[in-house]
Amino acid sequence: MRQHCAHARHVWNLAVEQHGHWKPGRKSAPGYLEQCRQLTAARREFGWLREGSQTVQQQALRDFDEAMRNFFAGTHRRPRWRKVGRSEGFRIVAVKADHVRRLNRRVAQVRVPKVGWVRFRLSRPVPAGVKSYRIALDSAGRWHIAFAAIPDPIPAPGTGGVVGIDRGVAVSAALSTGELLDVLRLSPGRRRRLLGLQRRLARAQRGSNRRARVKLAIAELRIREADARKDWCHKVSTDLARRFDVICVEDLKIANMTRSARGTIEAPGRNIQQKASLNREIAASGWGLLVRRLEQKARGRVEKVDPAFTSQRCSACGHVDRESRKSQARFRCTACGFTANADVNAACNIAVGHTVTARRGLAVVRPVNREPQLELLERA
Ligand SMILES: [Zn+2]
Fold it and tell me: Does any domain span residue 341?
């Protein structure tokens, strides 16, 4: 399976190279079909490539094709060179029904081309009628298998309920209902260990065994945290999709530009920079994942709102003043004296899609009935 990973990576990297040579005025780089023809020719010529699975290699080209289309659509960055040991994996398509077998309640096995039967532990039932799967090797050396199936979206409750979510630094997400949702993080002990390991990694010599050991230890800690975050995103998104008709979130593309100064209060001490960047990373990746899951589960019910001034605007009277946000945690309106948790106040603003001045000149189509939102404001 490592060889499958290597083949997929190699073919992908060749495709990246081909497209990297392109410059305005040159003939366009080969597309998927042309690349498949080239792959067939290359397999005829090179034995080590021929030994591998054609499906694995062809699917790497298909993945690349999709990555390029996403890049041209402006939703993703340009596909880049794949490195050994980082997001390794391959995809198998045209899976036959009898190529996935359940052995007992916990264990199943799958027939991987050129490898044979591979056992795996079931974390959930294999969906019926699977046509493809992806096998991946994570940086901590664990193998994963994922079967492709698009789950049915969760139906809206039909109550007209609207919720706003604000991502916080101290708290992972604040809802306009006043709920504060915190993602499970590494324990303080493990965090300290992670910082220590990162420092050791910086000192370790490149290519040394020590460096490899430290890297693996870091990967294990990070993966533990990532698993908890993924689990959290699944639970929260399912819960919100079931409870509310419309879910308002801040538009991250705009948020990146306007919100950089937020979350400045950090506990003083050593390694502030490192800790701050770690926090930021956690907050950012968790947020993106949560929004993606929401969009999948509450299809067509997620609204992206311009987040400008949501943290400075009073959700009770609409007054905008930087002074109202005195600290990281508390919001106190300088005009009407309304006080609230700062993140909850921002979430209420997001729920109404209000962004005051920044909205001027923007034609925003909001097909949603506004009444429940007003009611929500009064409650806040
Ligand atoms: Zn006010």
Answer: yes
Structural domain of residue 176, as residue ranges?
Answer: 162-184+238-379
166 part of the active site: yes
Q: Which tens digit of pLDDT belongs to each residue from 181-232?
A: 887 777 888 888 988 998 988 888 888 888 888 988 888 888 888 888 888 8
Neighbours of ion ligand 1 (CB under 5 A): 314, 316-317, 319, 333, 335-336, 338
Distance (angstroms) between ligand 1 centre and the Cα of 17 equals 56
Here the tokens at position 133 are 């799967």
In a domain, 326, yes or no: yes
The Cα–Cα gap between 294 and 159 comes to: 18
**β partners of residue 320:** 313
CA 315 / ligand 1 centre spacing (Å): 7
Same domain, 168 and 295: yes
In a domain, 194, yes or no: no
Domain membership flag for residue 226: no
Between the CA of 357 and the centroid of ligand 1 the distance, in Å, is 16
The catalytic residue among 138, 166, 295, 306 is: 166
* pTM exceeds 0.70, yes or no: no
Catalytic residue among 245, 250, 295, 306: 250
Please confirm, yes or no, whether 250 is among the known catalytic residues. yes
Could you tell me the distance, in angstroms and rounded to a whole number, from the CA of residue 245 to the centre of ligand 1? 27
Cα of 73 vs centre of ligand 1, distance in Å, is 41
